[in-house]
Amino acid sequence: MTKRLWIDTVGCQMNVLDSELVVAALRRQGWQMAQSPADADAVFYNTCSVRQHAEDKVYSALGRVRAEKAKRPELVVGVLGCMAQKDQELVRKRAPWVDLVVGPGQLHRVPALIDGVLAGSGPMIEVSLDRAAGSRESVARSFESYDPDRDPEMRPTPFQAFVRTQTGCDKFCAFCVVPRVRGPEQARPPAAILAEARKLVDEGCREITLIGQTVNSYRWSEEGRTTRLSDLLVDLDAIDGLDRIRFVTNYPRDMTDDLIHAVRDLPKVCHYLHVPAQHGSDDVLKRMKRGYTIGEYLEMHGRLMEAIPHAAVTSDFIVGFCGETDDEFGLMLDLVQNLRFKNSFIFKYSPRPGTKAFQRQPDDVPEAVKKERHRLLLEAQTEASLSGNVAMVGTRQKVLVEGISRRDEKQLTRDGLDGSSETDLQLSGRTMCDRIVVFDAPQRLIGRIVDVDILAAGPWAVSGTLALEGSPQEPALDEPLVHSIAMPTPSGKQAGHANPA
Ligand code: SAH
Ligand code: F3S
């Protein structure tokens, strides 16, 4: 009988990709997706350890699945990813009904492990012994044999996919648990990355997002030749059928001119650069061990804006890091007001066991202060985002249509609105600069690149109207669509969308 899997993914794009790969591997063994934990033979949580909150969410989800497991002891409960690696046996101490604990470096073992559990092996824990465990070659082999098998239904959309350039991180920022749970930085060979991209394009992908913890640190040396991210972009840009290339996350110090020029010159590369600054004070950056000063960040930002004046730059910030004073926070506020990022992800500092900050610097900013600084920084960023969006009003933008907007998706599920492909619905897509655009159009345009005239702006999105004359490189609007798009599942849970942790 067919077995059914339900998987919940929290955290970053890496986790979304990992979940896709786990599902692809299990499908090859005949598994199908379940609609809910109640109708599943296995329930997996692909987890994140970056902040305490992300872990708390998983432990409460595990609490909720406990009753189901008590009713059906044969249900396999699995904890995958970063929290599995970080907590190891502790997961089973806190939730003894968990059958499988699998770290991010061992996910290719999930099909064999689940078979073991179903055959009565008892609980299995499979994690890396330490950060350096296994030779680089053996890790690279498992990872290579694994990434190319993909699952279109688990992607953000059938025409957008993530491709990994490297695993792990060697930067060791004082607050960050990633180098510990994801291991050392290891690049994939360029040929493997390009082959995977070509395969995805053959399957109908139009947009590829390269992902790495510090994607712009990518380097691969072979026979005296070094391939950098800029070289990869040149080769990807030449793939017929691919329309858009993006890459995240960038480390400020590795934003070299060759990369900036590649972004400027290659027509398919989006002018969207996520380059987290993390803070606006040199003293805090030093305590965070980020490895650059604000002067250096500003120099990088200046080079970027000079080369690509309309580029959208985005950032991450941590408020309330150990010892953060009012003055230091003020410098971060200034940075956000001055650089006018397209948007920023703002986090309250969460001490993570195993990190340098956790060992050596007290988490001494009170929660109420963190909360207030978070509010103030978000307010400044929202104002900057809004003014950036307002500047788009009156322009015509090329938009990759990603799906039905959240508003109409809700209405469709609630009112059973006519979902035929000809009915106008509010659709949502993105510009080359990663700005979200909503507009009314028939659903059959999902997966296409269309021209939209921008009429109004809010802080999170702009709205507009479909331009009548289609974009020159696009087929006429009445041509049949290549992709048939499945409606997003009502829960969105197993559709591969990560819940922001
Ligand atoms: N290079 C990674 C960073 C992973 S963590 C990437 O792909 O984005 C994502 C963001 O979480 C970081 O940029 C940082 O702003 C935030 N973060 C990391 N550790 C944190 C902590 N201990 N507390 C609060 N925020 C944290
Ligand atoms: Fe984390 Fe810093 Fe690497 S934020 S992922 S240690 S670059």
Describe this structure in words.
The chain contains 16 helices and 21 strands. The protein is of the alpha/beta class and 501 residues long. The protein folds into three domains: 4-141, 3-Layer(aba) Sandwich (Rossmann fold); 147-390, pyruvate-formate lyase- activating enzyme (Alpha-Beta Horseshoe); 392-495 and 497-501, no CATH class. Strands 2-1-3-4-5-6 form a six-stranded parallel beta sheet, with helices on both faces. Strands 17-18-19-21-20 form a five-stranded mixed beta barrel. A three-stranded parallel beta sheet has the order 7-10-13, sandwiched between helices. Strand 11 (219-222) and strand 12 (225-228) form a beta hairpin. Helix 9 runs parallel beside helix 10 (257-265) and helix 13 (326-339) runs parallel beside helix 15. It is globular. The two termini are 35 Å apart. Residues 470-501 have low confidence and may be disordered.
Strand order of the largest sheet: 2-1-3-4-5-6
**Tally of strands:** 21
What's the main sheet like?
Answer: 6 strands, parallel
Poorly predicted ranges (pLDDT <50, ≥5 residues)?
470-501
Rg, nearest Å: 23 Å
